[in-house]
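Hi everyone,

Forwarding the result from last night's run.
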Amino acid sequence: MRGREKLFLLIAIVVAIGLSYVSASFNRYYLGIAIDVGINIILAVSLNLINGHTGQFSLGHAGFMAVGGYFAAKFTLVYGPTLPPAAQPFLFAGALLLGGIVAALAGLAVGVPSLRLKGDYLAIVTLGFGEIIRVIFQTSETFGAATGLTGIAKLTTFGWAWALAAVTVYVVACLVNSTYGRGFIAVHDDEIAAGAMGINPVRYKVTAFVIGAFFAGIAGGLYAHHKAVLSPGGFDFIKSIEIVVMVILGGMGRTVGVIFAAIILTILPELLRGVAEYRMIIYSLLIIGLMLTRPQGLFTWGKKGAA
C-alpha cells in the first residue's frame, strides 16, 4: 500500500509540474479555476482529517487558512523586492512553510484548551476562533486592516497548487493508514472505549487539529499568491461552511469522495454564472437536495476511515 501511495505522489507531482510548464498556453480563466480546485482539495482533505477521520466538528478552518495566507503574503511582500527573480520560487516555498507553521501553532493554541469538548460545543469554540482571527486581521494595521493586503506577487501556479494537493492527500493517507493513524479511527468510533484501551483521545485530536491547520495554512498561502489581494471578508464563517460542505458531501472520512466533492463544488458556481442573479439560490438548492437525498455523502465507495 505504501509503495502505491508513493507512486501516486510521484506521478501526481510530475504531471502537475509538466502541465505547469505549458500552462501559459491555457485559457487564463480556466487555469484560475483549476488552481482554485487544487487549493480547495488541500482545504477539504485537511479538514476531513479532523472532521471525518477523527470525528471532531470544526467550523474554524477558514481561520487557519487566513493565518497562513496573511503571514505568507506579508513574508513575500517584505522580502520579495530584495531578492532576484531566480530566488522567488525559494522565497515562495519559505513563505508557504511559514504560513503552515504559524497556522499549526494557531491550531495548537486553540486545540489544547478546547478539544476536551465534543460535538456542538467544539463547533462553537472553533467558530469563535475563526471569527477572532478575522477580526484581528481586520483591525491590524500591520496586515492592512479592513482593506487587507494588496500587491501580493502572483507566485501560485498550477504546479504549486496541484503538487501540494497531492502531498496533502499523500500525508493524510499515510497517516490514517499507519499504526498511529488507527488511533484517529478509534477516537472517531468510540472515544470512551479508546480511552479505556490506553489511547489518549485529546492527544490524537490535537495532533489531527494541528496537522489539518498546517495544511490549511499552506492553502491560505497559495490562495494569497493566486488572488494577489487578501481581505478579511474572504475568511468569514461562510468560507468555513463551504469547506465543511465539501467534506460532508464527499462522505465523512472518505478522502477520494472529498476530493471529488471539492472539484464539483469549485466548478459548480462557475457553471452557474450564466444565471448570475439566481446563481447562489440554485447552488444552495442543489446542495440542500444532495444533502436530503444522500445524507451519507455523494461518494461513499471504499472503506470508511481509509484514505
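Residues 111 and 206 are 5 Å apart (CA to CA).

Cheers,
N.
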